[in-house]
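User: C-alpha cells for this one?
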Amino acid sequence: MTEGCAVASVLGVLEEREAAARVRVKGLREEAARLAEVLEAAEIKLDWRVIAREELVEALAVSAAETTAVTEAVAEQGRDFPRDSRVTDR
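Assistant:
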C-alpha cells in the first residue's frame, strides 16, 4: 500500500503543478492582450509621426521649388529682388 500512497502523492504534486501552470498561462494571456493594445496604440502614434514627417518634407520641397523659381525668374530679368519700400538704409 505504500506504493499506492506514493503514486497518489506524486499525482497530487503533478495536479498542483498543472494548476499553477494554468494560472500562469492565464496571467500571461492577459498580459499579452494588454501588451497587444499598448503595441497597437504605439504603432498608430508611429504612423502619425511618419505621416507628419513626410508631409513636412513635401511642404518644404514645394516651398524650396517655389523659392528657386522666383529666384531664377528675378535673375533672368537681370535685377535684384525687389526691395521693400518700408526698409531704409542707415
